[in-house]
Design goal:
The chain is an alpha/beta fold. About 45% of the residues lie in helices and about 15% in strands. The protein is built from 15 helices and 12 strands. Helix 3 runs antiparallel to helix 4. About 40% of the residues are buried.
Length: about 400
């Protein structure tokens, strides 16, 4: 998509994210039960432009969709799409403040966990466009804030003092892209939600400690922990994500070697690390505002499968820890079986590990009764994240 001009790139992102965020209400308007499946996304794109993008003229939204249908399924499909979209355009637009969409099974799960009121607030959060938040790296916080403000951008301290929330300049027609901000190419900052930055603070890794970041891409936590004084090695086994990890490390100039390895077969002897960060693959239900596709991609069965995988990764991480070392287990999930239940089961299997929260590493409102980090979008106004800090003693 980077080959597109910036204006087209913005529109492509707006369309894809918008359709995913509002898919349920779009489908309700279309009634796709008897429609050729090849036309579903084309119709969703058309209705999204008609009902939620004021800057796209009706004729352009319809004609583009008709042409896509013609290329995809032929002339009869083009006529069908033309008729369906013109009928909806004539019927008028839905209220622009209407609630977006989540699958029923996920809403039911959240209502059991949080109750109706908090679930409604969580859905509302997920259906908003997320804020752009940056964390200083090569530039001090005061200097970064000053340079962004001097360039005309709105700069506010992010929640819990974790970075800066950036809004568009008054003269700019659109919200800023990270690459357009002053200092991006020089590595002055990384884009990182306060929740991720706060997990790094909660980790409280001692300066000089040798830390293995086992699932490191896209690299923001590796950068933050290295900035805090840890001697970080970044591990990543998903080859498609290696490029972004290396780009983050290279742009910020942080000296972090990269190991291409699955944690379960990492090339290190047992007990060889002072600290391990396991930012585990998860359902990402805490970041659905930023990743609206996740709400349609994830399933209840997938959460069960992810929990099994997380348990296996925790076992592998435990084997790398020296006595007295710190294991940080983290997710961006809201689901108990990926978070506190996962940790409780691990502690039952490994009595040599105990929770050890560092006092005042993060505000008390972000700590559970057990002392784990737990941020919730509907309560704290940041991404959902979870982390437990576990210290290894000698085996009993």
């Amino acid at each position: 998509m980077r080959a597109l001009p910036e204006r087209d790139r913005r529109l492509a992102h707006e369309l894809s994210a918008g359709v995913l965020r509002w898919r349920r209400s779009l489908d309700d308007a279309l009634d796709l039960r008897h429609t050729d499946p090849r036309l579903h996304d084309i119709l969703r794109l058309g209705v999204y432009q008609l009902r939620r993008l004021e800057r796209v003229p009706t004729h352009a939204a319809v004609s583009t969709s008709v042409e896509l249908a013609r290329e995809t399924a032929g002339e009869p499909a083009a006529r069908y799409v033309n008729q369906a979209l013109r009928k909806l355009a004539t019927a008028g637009s839905e209220e622009r403040g209407a609630v977006g969409s989540h699958p029923d099974w996920l809403l039911s799960r959240w209502r059991r966990q949080f109750g109706d009121e908090e679930t409604a607030r969580l859905v509302e959060w997920n259906d908003r466009k997320p804020s752009l938040v940056v964390q200083p790296v090569r530039t001090g916080a005061a200097t970064l804030r000053s340079s962004l403000a001097s360039a005309g951008y709105g700069v506010l301290e992010a929640p819990f003092g974790a970075g800066f929330t950036i809004s568009r300049a008054p003269t700019a027609p659109r919200s800023p892209l990270p690459r357009s901000l002053p200092g991006y190419e020089a590595g002055a900052f990384i884009v990182q939600d306060p929740a991720a930055a706060l997990v790094c603070r909660f980790a409280a890794v001692p300066p000089g400690a040798r830390l293995y970041d086992a699932c490191a891409a896209p690299g923001g936590k590796a950068v933050a922990l290295a900035q805090g004084g840890a001697r970080v090695t970044a591990g990543e086994w998903r080859r498609p994500r290696l490029g972004r990890l290396r780009e983050t490390l290279g742009r910020t100039g942080v000296a972090v070697p990269v190991v291409v390895a699955d944690l379960r077969s990492a090339p290190f002897p047992p007990g060889s690390w002072d600290a391990v960060l396991l930012d585990a693959p998860c359902s990402a239900t805490g970041t659905m505002a930023r990743h609206p596709d996740a709400r349609w991609r994830i399933t209840a069965a997938a959460i069960t499968g992810l929990a099994r995988r997380q348990a296996a990764l925790l076992e592998a991480a435990a084997g790398l820890m020296r006595a007295g070392g710190v294991l940080i287990y983290a997710t961006c999930s809201l689901e108990p079986e990926e978070n506190e239940r996962q940790v409780e089961a691990f502690l039952e299997r490994h009595p040599e590990f105990t929770r050890s929260t560092v006092s005042e590493s993060v505000p008390a409102t972000l700590l559970s009764v057990a002392g784990d980090f737990h941020s919730l979008p509907q309560r704290h106004g940041i991404d959902g994240a979870y982390a437990a800090r576990l210290v290894r003693g000698e085996k009993p």
